[in-house]
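Q: How would the structure tokens look for this protein?
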Amino acid sequence: MYRRGLVPGVRPGATGIEVVKMHALARLFLGPTFRNVQSSWVKEGPKLAQCLLAAGANDMGGTLINESISTSAGAGYGQLVPPAELRRLIRDAGRIPAQRNTEYELVRVYGAEEDADDSPLDHIEDAEARFGSYRKLATSGQFRFLHPLRTSTPS
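A: Here is the predicted structure in token form.
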């Protein structure tokens, strides 16, 4: 709505303070009903997602490669944050990193010295070169659908 100017007065998104308040309120209002509140590094960036761990969030989100949903909506992140970097951000926020499955069941808790648990994703030098870029693909027009009755081609 913002990018296309469909609704007057619509802002490009929440401010950083609004994002922090929303996570804090979610923790207070949802309480024991929803035990996990996620801070999304894809939507907010790794540093704000890290700060949200002190404002009610208890989940940093997962390792994503070339995420497309949030990126399509205008998020500025989403290519890749390697697992070791996610663990570092979590530790620097005073938390203990852990891995869970999709149903929030604990898979593994990482001890202080377990960053030697090497993931192949920790060694990717240039994620965009390795995996491509959804943002570039979406803006290229190369694969854009052109309706045959609404497009005019020179004869």
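The two ends are 36 Å apart (CA to CA).

The mean pLDDT is 85.

Upvote if useful.
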